[in-house]
Each structure stands twice: as structure tokens, then as C-alpha cells.
Amino acid sequence: MTACSGCGNQTSGGASGQDSTQANEQQMTEAFITQRVNDIYKDVYDTKRNEFKQLQTLDGIDKFDPVDFDAKYMSAAYNSLQEKAIKIGEDRNEPIIDADHWILGQDWTEPSMKVTAVRDITSTTATALVVIHKQAGGQASDEPITLSLVWERGNWFIDNMKGGNENDSTAFDEKGWLENYVSDNAEY
Question: How many CB atoms are closer than 10 A to CB 169?
């Protein structure tokens, strides 16, 4: 388990005697949720940087064992849906994931992120607005993303990532896309 610095909680499992199905008042604050999202992305980005360095020193990709951040930080419902979609994609011989949703792209060039707002907080759900800063091909860009969070396993987990501005009807809705893919390919 990874400690959530500043959160007073852990990645999975709650404090003893605490109902882990609902956040308490402290865990429902903007500060707590902002720290949780910051901790998630810090772990992802720091680990990815170390993995990249590790890959450069290995004599074969087969010796590389990446961390599964979706299993670690995405909700159980999201992971179940993604697993179904990946299985269908494998059965159809078509890859369904061609970019890394943690950076909204394919290439890692020192990304960073900032939580710009947290709202719609209940004891089981919240929304975090985040900006991902990245560089590709010498060009810097800031990409907004909306995270739908759910309280489960004693902490906040990401249930959906929506790229683009939150009110943009053309914004990519990752979980919505996975749901449609699974539904459209139910015969598999």
C-alpha cells in the first residue's frame, strides 16, 4: 500500500472501524481530494520516469515489468469494463488502447499536472478538474481533463477521465467509449 501524503489514508483499505463505503467529512474536503489526485499523478509520473530509465538500461523489453496504474488508481467498475473491452479487442485482433490516458498522449516528455478545481463532492463521488502540461516535438501544451472520482476501498479512485473542456460535447469520454465498445461488440 502507498501512503497518501497529507491525506491521512492509504491507497486501499480504510482506517480500522471506519465505514469504507463512504468518505467522512475530512475526506470530503477539496484539500483532501486535491492531495489524493496530486499523490496519484505524482506516483504515476515518478514511476514512469524511473521505468523509462530502467528500459534504457535493459537489454530487452522482456525484462521490463511495468506498474499497472489502472489497477492501482482506477475504480473497480472502470477496471472491470476496461478488462471486458480489452478482451473483446484481443478476440477481434484490434488494439483498443493507443495512448496513455495518464498523459493524454503517447509520448512521455516530463508531464506535470495541476488540480484546478474540485466540486460536486458527496460521500461517494466527486469531480476534479485537472490540467496536464506536456511537451511533444518541442511544443508545450496544456490539456484539460475532468476526473470523475468514486469513494471505494477506503479512498478516492478515478472512475472516468474526460479529455477536453468539461462542457465540450466533443470531449473524449473514456468510460463512455469503453461502455459503447463493449455494448456494440456484445457478441464477443
Answer: 7
Domains in the chain (CATH in brackets) are 22-184 (3.10.450)
Q: Mind listing the pLDDT tens digit for each residue in 109-162?
A: 678 999 999 999 999 999 999 999 987 777 888 989 999 999 999 999 999 999
CA-wise closest residue to 48 among 83, 72, 80: 72
pTM of the model: 0.81
- Please give the Cα distance from 38 to 110 (Å, whole number): 15
Distance (Å, whole) CA 186 – CA 84? 10
Strands (E), the chain: 3-4, 9-10, 112-119, 125-136, 139-152, 155-163
What does the alpha-carbon distance between residue 57 and residue 125 come to, in Å, rounded to a whole number? 42
* Four-residue CA torsion sign, 45, 71, 82, 177: negative
